[in-house]
Design goal:
Chain lengths: 332, 285
């Protein structure tokens, strides 16, 4: 396995203790302020969760461009649709369980079908929300958003990437869903790491198995790949598929042809998520064995983020197991 | 701005033409919502031929007033009014609900930008109108935003979220118009889910409320003028209308909510409209 130097990843890539730890929502908060500085059409709408979505940083800087909706996610989406219709670039912020959870139809009709550039920031996605429990742990938001035509879906892997993704989303003319996490996770990319919507980043190159990941679990994927290489002699490619829609067909298919076995890793239901998107692409173009790491038809629960990641089978050891399992199926 | 009697008469005649178009297009389409479309013919005529600052030849003119139709299922009345106003050829009305047509069963802005929004799923129009009104106020644009809603869609929570939002933000550039015809698909609104006291509810949420006869064009136009003069809050005009107005057989009958006329019915209805309910002789007689 070879780390791809073009990705300008952190020097301490495999040293969890030396890496900075920040939640991806922090990257969103910073990116939103920068987007606001770069374009005065950017406005932020929030449903009574300004601090925990980090939208309050925008509020402090641009109070006149911050719009408070109260606990009203349906209105959050429809008012944003109107603002985009008028010519603004609205970011709507809440927890993913509520937006796009509660307001799914409003997003479908007044954002996606209307083809208006509303940017939906879903915070607190995944079981790593921790103590709040199942009600607040969105595990189906990628599925909800990626089935909507016109919608772009992005799941940043760390705070740096979240900031870049937010800035990039502000510059597109399409609806965008951005998924963020609550918990602090390793910041393993750098300011200089590339980010382009729709272009997956190949973090590590290896010939045996391709691990495709999105979100903060991508660091777990790298750790698993490193351990597999050092202890088992298994050489993995690791692809950060931050943009789930539009999916980077070329990257996925060319690497599938090279490795002929794939493991997908996401903090989301197996059904309908990033792994499903990969499987849809493979099934029609180049079927190879796939093992999927994610939540299997279950709701989350209260607990520490780390123990929940382990319990639901998304830790480093689960990813390693999935890789070894798919290698066996490769030779069947 | 007082509206002259002659102008009112012209608008009434135009509304009658628009009702004929509605019957013709629904007959051709073979499906669609008859009662609500006919019931709002006077108000849409007043909008497109007197109230709105707009330019049919330049539909996305930045300074235009925005008319948002929240209850998208009555879009035949809007299509008909737009065609008569010159947005597109009247022949195109016959393509309603047909494959390849810009006149989708429910309005879609991506097919016809002059529709402003995409609607059909109820309860979402007022939020969009609020967003446009808020954005326009941020930019100090002197446009007015109108939102036509049904009474039945006030069952939806989204509407009340938007009512609160407009009240909180004192969106005085926004005027809501409620088609208070008292029917929805499952029957009378007060049986399905009581809305009264509707006026008190809006007032409690910080709106100025006016009530008019939705078939009295002069009264409606005057109410819209009055709303423009209210600077400290949004205004809603509760327009009492008769579903199916203009065709006696359809009036007040919930059965006509979602069905089009059959051929013999349409002929009879068009005859009624041509003779203004027997008051004048048809030019076809």
């Amino acid at each position: 396995m070879k780390i791809n130097q073009e990705q300008k990843l952190s020097e301490n890539l495999f040293d969890k203790d030396k890496l900075d730890k920040l939640p991806t929502r922090d990257g969103f908060g910073k990116g939103l302020v920068r987007a606001g500085e770069e374009d005065e059409r950017v406005v932020a709408l929030c449903a009574d969760l300004a601090e925990s979505t980090r939208t309050h940083w925008f509020l402090e800087k641009f109070p006149e461009r911050y719009i408070e909706l109260g606990v009203a996610e349906q209105n959050l989406a429809t008012v944003a649709s109107g603002l985009a219709n008028y010519g603004k670039i609205p970011f709507i912020t809440s927890y993913a369980a509520f937006s796009p959870g509660r307001n799914n139809e409003q997003i479908r009709t007044t954002v996606s079908l209307s083809d208006l550039p509303v940017k939906i920031a879903g915070a607190h996605a995944g079981v790593s929300v921790g103590p709040d429990g199942a009600t607040h742990q969105a595990l189906e938001d990628i599925a909800l958003m990626r089935v909507q035509p016109n919608m772009t879906v992005i799941v940043p892997a760390d705070a740096n990437e979240a900031e870049k993704a937010t800035l990039a989303a502000a510059k597109t003319n399409t609806p965008v869903y951005l998924r963020f996490a609550r918990e602090k996770t390793p910041v393993f990319t750098t300011e200089n790491s590339p980010f382009e919507i729709g272009k997956a980043n190949l973090l590590a190159e290896g010939d045996d198995v391709l691990i495709i990941s999105c979100g903060p679990l991508t660091h777990n994927a790298l750790l698993a790949a490193d351990e597999l290489y050092k202890k088992e002699g298994v050489s993995c490619s690791v692809l950060n598929l931050h943009t789930i829609k539009p999916i980077d067909k070329e990257a996925v298919l060319s690497l599938a042809k090279k490795t002929k076995a794939i493991v997908t890793v996401e903090e989301h239901q197996i059904a309908g998520g990033m792994g499903s998107a990969v499987c849809e692409l493979l099934a029609e173009n180049f079927p190879v064995p796939v093992s999927m790491v994610g939540v299997r038809d279950s709701f989350g629960e209260s607990g520490d983020p780390d123990e929940l990641i382990e319990k639901f089978g998304m830790g480093v050891s689960s990813i390693k197991k999935a890789v070894l399992n798919v290698i066996k199926r490769k030779s069947e | 701005m007082h509206i002259h009697d002659q102008k009112v008469k012209e608008l009434e005649e135009k509304a009658n033409e628009i009702r004929k178009s509605i019957i013709e297009m629904l007959l051709e389409a073979g499906s669609g919502h008859t009662a609500g479309s006919l019931g709002m013919a006077d108000i849409f005529t007043a909008f497109y031929f007197h109230i709105l600052k707009h330019d049919p030849k330049n539909p996305l003119w930045e300074e235009r007033d925005r008319l948002i139709l929240s209850n998208g299922h009555i879009v035949p009345v809007r299509y008909a009014a737009m065609a008569h106003a010159g947005y597109f050829p009247k022949e195109e009305l016959k393509t309603l609900r047909k494959y390849g047509s810009n006149l989708q069963g429910h309005p879609e802005r991506t097919r016809m930008p002059a529709l402003e929004t995409t609607s059909g799923p109820l309860g979402s129009g007022l939020g969009q109108a609020c967003g446009i009104a808020y954005g326009a106020r941020m930019d100090r644009k002197k446009i007015r935003v109108y939102c036509a809603m049904s009474d039945g869609e006030h069952d939806a929570g989204n509407i009340w979220e938007s009512v609160m939002f407009a009240g909180k933000n004192k969106l005085s550039n926004l005027t809501g118009v409620i088609d208070r015809n008292n029917i929805q698909i499952n029957g009378m609104t007060e049986d399905v889910m009581p809305l009264e006291p509707l006026k008190d509810k809006y007032e409690a949420f910080g709106w100025h409320v006016l009530e008019v006869d939705g078939h009295n064009i002069e009264e409606f136009v005057n109410a819209v003028e009055q709303a423009k003069a209210i600077y400290e809050k949004p205004t809603v005009i509760i327009a009492h209308t008769i579903p199916g107005k203009g065709i006696e057989e359809i009036e007040f009958d919930p059965a006509w909510h979602g069905k089009p006329p059959k051929k013999e019915e349409a002929e009879r209805f068009l005859q009624q409209l041509r003779t203004l309910g027997g008051k004048i002789r048809s030019e076809h007689e």
